[in-house]
Amino acid sequence: MLVTFTNKAATEMIKRVEKLLSIKPDGIWAGTFHSIANRFLRQYAKSLGFKPNYVIIDETDANLLMKITYNSTEIQTDDKSFPSPKTAKNILSYSINCNKTISETIKWKYKQYDDMRFISKLKEIFKIYKNKKAKDNLVDFDDLLVFWNKLLDERFMAQRIASTFKYILVDEYQDTNYIQDEIIRKLSKYTPESNILAVGDDAQSIYGFRGANFQNIMKFSKRFENCRIYKLTQNYRSVPEILDLANDSIKHNKSQFRKEMETTRQKGVKPVQIISENDEEQAIYIVNKLIELQRDGNKLNDVAILYRAGFHSLRIELELQNRFIPYVVHSGVSFFERAHVKDLLAHLRIVQNPKDEISWSRIFSQFKGVGRKTSSKIYEIISGMSNPLENIISSSNFRKKLNNLKIPEDIRREIVTYITEFLKSIKNDKPKEVIIKLINQLTKFLKPKYSNWQDRIEDLKQIGIYFQNYDSIQSFLDILTLNKSTIESKSVGLSNTNSSPLTLSTIHRAKGLEWKIVFIPMLSENLFPSNRVKNNLEALEEERRVFYVGITRAKERLFLISPKRIKNFKGHKDLNLSQFISELNPKVYKKSSYQDYSNFPMGTKDLGLTKRKLKRDKELPLFTTADSLLKD
Q1: Most Cβ neighbours (<10 Å): which of 111, 257, 344, 511?
Q2: pLDDT tens, position by position, 561-613
Q3: Rounded to whole angstroms, what are the CA distances from 63 to 60, 132, 369, 446?
Q4: Using one digit for the tens of pLDDT, what is the confidence trace for 351-389?
Q5: What's the pTM?
Q6: DSSP string for 231-296
Q7: Element (H, E) at 445
Q8: Alpha helix segments (H runs only) across 365-430
Q9: Is the peptide bond before 529 cis (omega within 30 degrees of 0)?
């Protein structure tokens, strides 16, 4: 049995076995934990009390079923701070996969719902959800693992299943969660030869936030008798200079299998560490360097900019757009395409154009029970007003017309209150104050809807900070729209029109990938590592593993950039150099020629940026920014 985390990886492994043996081997079960679980459950479903013709529902359908559960129950879930059906499903999933109670899961990952009233309601909802699945013969992804694990609890059944295999191989063991580790442990107990091979890299265990248990690989040798450990230290990707830096970084983690990675590649160039005056100059430096690298014959699709958190990409994306450099966001959406960002921008567009139906529709969709039809009817009321922004605030006519729509009274009141507060907040305020008030209002919707609501709020704050560069909402929105339209043409701003775009990605999404050249920005304290890992050694060490993964995506060139300060609503915030940089042996990287080592605070040692500021390349009229065109 060959178990991994994607069917693509399983298929690739089978192909490699076939290539090595020059034949197609029989008797190999290869796939994900879920796909192999499904094969067994089809055989033994009746012993678990359900029919073998059960239907597997994906995440989308599972969330829909949870929503149906909400609607069909008499349990009161109208409180707007109560978790959404999708969030509730996530809470249940984490609870199952991590072997935690609902209460423990909420305290760990969803502290905003740490209220016994919510917890007791959720427990009732989860019972109803479970009964609905059983009644309709449905199985979700979590059930596949739960039922497989349950089959292995019965001795006779466990022996029967385990006897199917002589050898068991599990890939990426550092990413397994509690229930996956339990399944392998039980199989090992009844496998005749106990031939379990776990392949993994503890230094790349970075998915704790998804429920992966780092201790599964660290304690493997203690849980499985007569375990032998083989350290694979050959690296075929990176030049020795990059591996030297990676080794020097990860050695600071106390909890790990100690090893020194070695490369098969020839000597290359040392990683470069750059200190920028601020995050704006960091973006300018990256783009100027990209242009220089391209002039030297490098292709954009050989380059990746990898960051710790989504909001770290804002100024970089804007600078890329301003300079007409095409990029793709790996396995995600660009900063300004994120749902919560578009929600904020929709509010700003209403200020600019009160009869923007698309923007009003986004705002109305935030409210429970308001669908497309209801949204269209509300918009008809607004569009029929001569001066919507004034009339909604001052006139009772809007409220009266809303009363004629089939909307629950509490939702109707909520809509009126929200829109009135929103319009009052923007009436006489400066753009900066408008953004701050909008963020406060949107927090009410984001907090119950998303587990990562704090990250989303941080995204919105970054917009507010950037917004301060503009005198009006109109100029700000114009820049965003025009910049976006230029970037849609993949060839604009390229010397080689056949080149593919460069990649932007969070480090978590980039795991398993590689690029010739990698930039890692925002390497300053409280940014990377995040301020949320303070006083938590386990979390700090996972953060360092994230840094390690980022470093080891690079094959030939690596650039580490640290801004000295970032903008905030109060002006600027000074930053210390990231611990992940200051703890490195200075011999494993070279400092940029832009530094004079004078003003950067880092405890006993100060580093700084030369007085000469980074500037956009004046010799490149092709890259004139949309910003400057509009201002002229």
Answers
A1: 344
A2: 999 988 776 667 889 999 999 999 999 999 884 443 334 344 333 323 333 34
A3: 5, 13, 16, 18
A4: 777 777 888 888 888 777 777 777 888 888 887 777 777
A5: 0.77
A6: ---EESSS-HHHHHHHHHHHTT-SSS-----EESSPP----EEEEESSHHHHHHHHHHHHHHHHHT
A7: helix 431-449
A8: 372-383, 388-394, 397-403, 409-427
A9: yes
Structure-token pair, residue 298: 């490098």
* Structure-block tokens of residue 163: 């006897």
Query: What one-character DSSP code corresponds to residue 35?
Result: H
The CA-to-CA distance between both ends of the chain, in Å, stands at: 66
Burial of 119 (0-12, 13-18, 19+ CB in 10 A): middle
Non-local (6+) Cβ contacts of 417 within 8 A are none
CA dihedral 351, 357, 359, 361 (to 10 degrees): 130
- List helix spans (H) across 552-605: 579-582
Cα dihedral 53→54→58→59 (10° resolution): 180
Question: How many beta carbons lie within 10 A of that of residue 507, not counting itself?
Answer: 23
Spatial contact of 541 and 253, defined as CB atoms under 8 Å apart: yes
Query: Do residues 314 and 338 touch, judged by C-beta distance below 8 A?
Result: no
Distance CA 63, CA 40 (A): 25
Task: Report the C-alpha gap between 82 and 118 in whole angstroms.
Answer: 7
- Give, in order, the Cα–Cα distances in Å from 555 to each of 300, 304, 330: 15, 11, 18
Q: How many CB atoms lie under 10 A from the CB of residue 284?
A: 23
Distance CA(326)–CA(493), nearest Å, equals 8
CA distance readout (Å), 302 to 240, 461, 521: 19, 32, 17
CB of 500 closer than 8 Å to CB of 301: yes
